[in-house]
Amino acid sequence: MATLEKIRSKSVLLFVIIIVALLAFILGDFLTSGRTYFGGGTTMAKAGNAKVDYHDYQARMNVVSEQQQRSQRQADSDELSQQVLQQLLLEKMLKNEYNDLGIVVTDAELSEALTGATPHPAAQQFIYGMSQQLGLPAPSGQAVYDAMMNPQKYGLPAEAGNQLKQYWAAIEQDIENTMLQEKFDRLVAGLFTANELDAQNLFNDVATTRHITYAAKPISSVTDDQVEVTDADRRAAWQQDMAQYRLTEPVRSIDYIMVRIEPSQADRVAGTQEVENALAALNSAEGTDMVAANSRFVVSNATAPRSQMTDKRLQAFVDTASVGKAVLLNNIGDKYTLVKLLGKKNEVDSINVSMLGRADGGSLDSLLAEVNAGKSFADLIDGQNIGGQDSTWTTLAAPGIPENIKAALENNALGTAFILSDTVNGNPVSTLYRINRRHAPVPVYEIATIDYTIDPSNETLSKLSTDLNTFVSNNSSAADFAANAAEAGYTVMSGAVSNSSSHVANATDSRPAVKWIMNAKKGQVMPVYQDNKQTYLLTAAVKGIYDGEYLPFDADLIADQVNAKALKDKKAQKLIAEYAGKAKDVAGYAKLMGVEAQNGDAMFNAPMLATLGYGESALQGAVAAAEQGKLVGPVEGNNAVVVFVVTGQDNQNREYTFEEYANQFNRQLGIGGRRPMQDFQRFTLLLGKNKVENSSLNFIQGFGE
Q1: Measured distance CA(91)–CA(261) in Å, rounded
Q2: For a FRET experiment, which of 72, 119, 155, 368 has its CA 20 to 30 Å from that of 501?
Q3: Residues contacting residue 285 through CB under 8 Å, at least 6 positions apart
């Protein structure tokens, strides 16, 4: 029946389309409830000279909250809230940069982007959707603008014009921001245009293959007990990769315990018995009142023919069940689904109709006369004031269809045109119908679906909480927390938390716990936190606090990684010392190493070298720099210590031209007009060596406060 409603509720649909179009421009999120604190000011985040004020943040949240509600989207509010905060910070950073660089979008540019012959791509969805609703022969930003200023001309109420103005202003702002970003991207891209050296190096990388003969001794041939790794070794390994350990904001390392609040075995026995009792009651009495009174049972009714049932088990049920019969349809884990057949009758499932409606709500008598005189519905639809469908299939079996319309469509003769009236949002609406085809009536079933979930009892929750609180009381230091967890039956996991963290680990609704951790001292253990939905219990111990420019080499967050690198390097050094200078050619080294000499190829843009595996950038560099015919090594690779000689090279019959490889270089750069920059690229570029100061935790209520 949705097709029938399309014409009868045109004004409502108009605004829905507008809202949907806007979703392309506004990031969805909604602000979690909680009090705010302004004692530390209203700055939620800053980086350099860019600041995000709480009031700006709240205003954005109000907008996107409305979008969330209208779109009925489900989202992790904490995660998206932090994304929006970062987006606002990026916008502030960009705005400062625009001002410094003199980047502007003129009124003429903005007008052309929205109402010109070729609208800006970011505006096309909005313009297309609105043009369709206005019945325009072709999408036109100018006509949409005209409708906004002169709604009556297009059969729209004045209020529709006012709302359209609001949406237009939002679109206009988004388009302006997009155009500013595009100008910025093009400017940045211009700073990274390939020169002759860039083009030549790229040609060498992608077109040149160097042929090598080599001997490789796997680093894994040295066991861990054959070398000793010192702090100096670890520091040296850390320094080689220290760029990846840079901090953009303070971080805390934690051990944590997360206990899922799940039903106990006793809860499941009791729940199963309750389901069995409900099923018996459903089969012994009419209707579903006997279970609907229990809030743990969720009852929903639906009416549909068999053809609309996608569940084969439900199809099998209605094929054989008598009215009043109830069965267990499905059981997955702690979730049960019962169904009961409440009624069965024959109704028209499929009907093909033609429809016409007037946007101005005027009389349809003249249109009816024209239809009866032989004029087609398609010829009467003008896309302006008269809209409709020449031929569309719908169903009369769905609930909610007004009885007068249902009866008329079910009983009137084929080919008969008639006018029916209804009320939409308190306003009378008339529609002209003609019945073209009607399938024979089919059985239509009224079915009650009863969902039941076994939830943890209060006793179960109390025991889980008491046990974890007891553990925390008895292990109030980070060391004891980690050492004694297994004996108490808990699994300790490790993680990292910052002010920007949406959660602790994967625990939703845990920003209050993040706040506690970021305010804690090293070694402290967090009191037990329970989420609002009572799905988990959480506690954590603060192992490390890192506020510097880099994570130190001995930070627990990277200690294993750094130690593995140092251990590999130490093993490689041992092998190099063992073989260096002991042979005069590859064959001699192969004999010393106890391996076979091999031939291979090195392409400098490939992720692997010969048969040595992936991640061999150091070896690839050595091969590229080597003099042809000269023995090189032993040198350390990622997987082996290698001795090699370059025996030749070719360019795969490819010729070098500056234009080709300069263009390829620019494309690979991936910014500007060649490929739009991503927000993370802009953010990283503008952030530079600044740190993000995220104060958003000051604006939520921490637990225990």
Answers
A1: 41
A2: 72
A3: none
Pairing mode of beta strands 326-332, 297-305: unpaired
- Residue 541 contacts residue 254 (beta carbons within 8 Å): yes
DSSP state of 154: G
Q: Which of 342, 231, 241 is nearest to 286 (CA)?
A: 342
Query: How many other CB atoms are found less than 10 A from the CB of residue 667?
Result: 11
**Alpha-helix runs per DSSP H in 116-151:** 121-133, 141-149
What domains lie within the chain, and their CATH numbers? 2-189+689-699 (no CATH), 209-246+558-650 (no CATH), 251-262+457-546 (3.10.50.40), 265-347+448-453 (no CATH), 352-438 (no CATH)
Q: Which residue has the tokens 């009792």?
A: 277
pLDDT at 359 over 90: no
Give a three-class secondary structure readout of 267-307: HHHHHHHHHHHHHHHHHHCCCCHHHHCCCCEEEEEEEEEHH
Q: Dump pLDDT digits (tens) for 412-432.
A: 888 889 988 877 655 677 888
Q: DSSP characters for 299-346?
A: EEEEEEEGGG---HHHHHHHHHPPTT-EEEEEEETTEEEEEEEEEEEE
3-state secondary structure of 457: coil
Q: Write the Ramachandran bin of 277: left for phi over 0, alpha for psi from -120 to 50, otherwise beta.
A: alpha
Model confidence, pTM: 0.68
Question: Which residue(s) pair with 544 in the sheet?
Answer: 253
Instruction: For residue 67, give Cα distances in angstroms to 14, 129, 137.
Output: 16, 17, 29
Q: To 10 degrees, what angle do helices 54-71 and 77-101 make?
A: 130
Which single residue is written with the structure tokens 């935790």?
A: 697
CB atoms within 10 A of CB 366: 11
Q: What digits encode the pLDDT tens for the residues 105-164?
A: 898 888 888 888 888 888 888 888 877 777 677 788 888 888 788 877 777 777 777 878
Q: Which two tokens stand for residue 619?
A: 């070896």
Give dist(CA 237, CA 197) in Å, integer. Answer: 31
**Cis bond upstream, residue 634 (ω within 30):** yes
Calpha distance 329→314 (Å, rounded): 7
Q: Is 143 left (phi over 0), alpha (psi -120 to 50) or beta?
A: alpha
CB atoms within 10 A of CB 358: 21
Helix or strand or coil: residue 326? Answer: strand
- Sequence-distant (6+) residues with CB within 8 A of 492 are 255, 256, 257, 481, 482, 485, 486
Q: How many CA atoms lie within 13 A of 666 on its CB side?
A: 19
Give mean pLDDT, residues 14-36.
Answer: 35
Average pLDDT, the chain: 83
443 vs 435: CA distance, rounded Å: 21
Confidence of residue 356 (pLDDT cuts 50, 70, 90): confident
Q: Which residues contact 582 (CB under 8 A, 6 or more apart)?
A: 588, 589, 592
Distance CA 148, CA 163 (A): 9
Q: How many residues does the chain have?
A: 705
Q: For residue 38, with 0-12 CB atoms within 10 Å meaning exposed, 13-18 middle and 19 or more buried, which class applies? A: exposed
601-651 pLDDT per residue, tens: 887 666 666 667 677 778 888 888 899 999 998 999 888 999 999 999 887
User: What six digits make up the tokens of 631?
Assistant: 């023995």
Q: Are 682 and 94 in contact (CB under 8 A)?
A: yes
Distance CA 518, CA 10 (A): 52
DSSP annotation of 414 reads T
Residue found under tokens 């560099």 = 621
